C-alpha cells in the first residue's frame, strides 16, 4: 500500500489561509491533491491539518481527512518529518502493509504526476530511504556574495576569477514532494543525506510560495505554463 500525506496547517502567517487561498481558479491545496490522484500510485491520499475549513476543502477535491492534527504538531517550529510520522501512526495500524509514503506539500501548484511517478520508480530501483524533487541553482553558488555593513564580500573569494562553466553544478530542494520508505519516516531519518536520491525538475516548474511577491510570481508562471498545457 502506498499513501500520500499532504501537510496543511491553518496558521500560515505571511500569506494568511495560504493552503486554501484561490490560486488561478482553485484552492492552492487542490493542485497537490489532483496530482496525487492523477499519478495513480496511491491507495490513500491523506491531508494532515489542524483546521476544519482546510479539511472541508481537501475532502471536496478527493482527499481523506481521518483526523485533525494535534496542536503540538501545528506550530511554527514543528518540522515535516514528525508530521508525516504522526499521520502514518494515525492512519495505518499495520505498518507492515506500507510500501512507501509520499509527502506532497500543499503549496506546490507546479507538481506534476509524471515526476511523482518517476521519483517512486527511482526510490525502488535505487533502494534509497528517500526520493525527492530537486532542481539546479540558476547562478553558481560558489560565486555568491554577502552584504556586511554596506560592503560586499564573497563567501569564497578563491572563485572570483573561476569561469562559471568550470564550477561544479549545485542543486536545491524543489519543495514539492518527498517519497520515503515507512522505516525512514518512522525513524525520522534526515532527508538530505547519502541514503536519499533526487529527481531533477526543470527550473520553470519550481517556485517557492512564502511571500506575497512569491505568490504573484507563481501565478504569472502558472498562467504562462498553462497556455502551453504545462509541457515540461
Automatic annotation (TrEMBL):
Matches recorded under SUPFAM superfamilies: Nucleotide-diphospho-sugar transferases
Top-level taxonomic group: Bacteria
Protein name per Swiss-Prot or TrEMBL: Pseudaminic acid cytidylyltransferase
The keyword Transferase belongs to this UniProt entry's keyword annotation: yes
Keyword Ion transport tagged: no
Taxonomic lineage of the native organism: Bacteria, Pseudomonadati, Campylobacterota, Epsilonproteobacteria, Campylobacterales
Listed GO MF terms: N-acylneuraminate cytidylyltransferase activity
Keywords annotated in UniProt: Nucleotidyltransferase, Transferase
Pfam families per UniProt: CTP_transf_3 (PF02348)
Record EC number: 2.7.7.81
Amino acid at each position: 500500500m502506498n499513501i500520500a500525506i499532504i501537510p496543511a496547517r491553518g496558521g500560515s502567517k505571511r500569506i494568511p489561509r495560504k493552503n486554501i487561498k484561490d490560486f488561478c481558479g482553485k484552492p492552492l491545496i487542490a493542485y497537490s491533491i489532483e496530482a496525487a490522484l492523477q499519478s495513480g500510485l496511491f491507495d490513500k491520499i491523506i491531508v494532515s491539518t489542524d483546521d476544519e475549513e482546510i479539511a472541508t476543502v481537501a475532502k471536496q477535491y478527493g482527499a481523506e481527512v481521518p483526523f485533525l492534527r494535534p496542536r503540538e504538531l501545528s506550530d511554527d517550529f514543528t518540522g515535516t518529518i514528525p508530521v508525516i510520522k504522526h499521520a502514518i501512526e494515525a492512519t495505518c495500524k499495520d505498518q507492515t502493509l506500507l510500501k512507501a509514503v509520499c509527502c506532497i506539500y500543499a503549496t506546490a501548484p507546479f507538481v506534476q504526476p509524471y515526476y511523482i511517478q518517476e521519483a517512486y520508480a527511482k526510490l525502488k530501483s535505487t533502494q534509497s530511504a528517500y526520493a525527492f524533487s530537486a532542481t539546479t541553482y540558476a547562478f553558481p553558488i560558489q560565486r555568491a556574495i554577502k552584504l556586511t555593513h554596506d560592503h560586499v564580500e564573497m563567501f569564497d573569494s578563491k572563485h572570483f576569477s573561476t569561469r562559471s562553466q568550470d564550477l561544479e553544478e549545485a542543486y536545491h530542494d524543489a519543495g514539492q514532494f518527498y517519497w520515503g520508505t515507512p522505516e525512514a519516516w518512522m525513524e525520522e531519518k534526515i532527508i538530505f543525506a547519502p541514503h536519499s536520491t533526487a529527481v531533477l525538475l526543470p527550473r520553470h516548474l519550481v517556485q517557492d510560495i512564502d511571500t506575497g511577491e512569491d505568490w504573484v510570481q507563481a501565478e504569472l508562471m502558472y498562467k504562462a505554463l498553462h497556455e502551453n498545457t504545462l509541457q515540461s
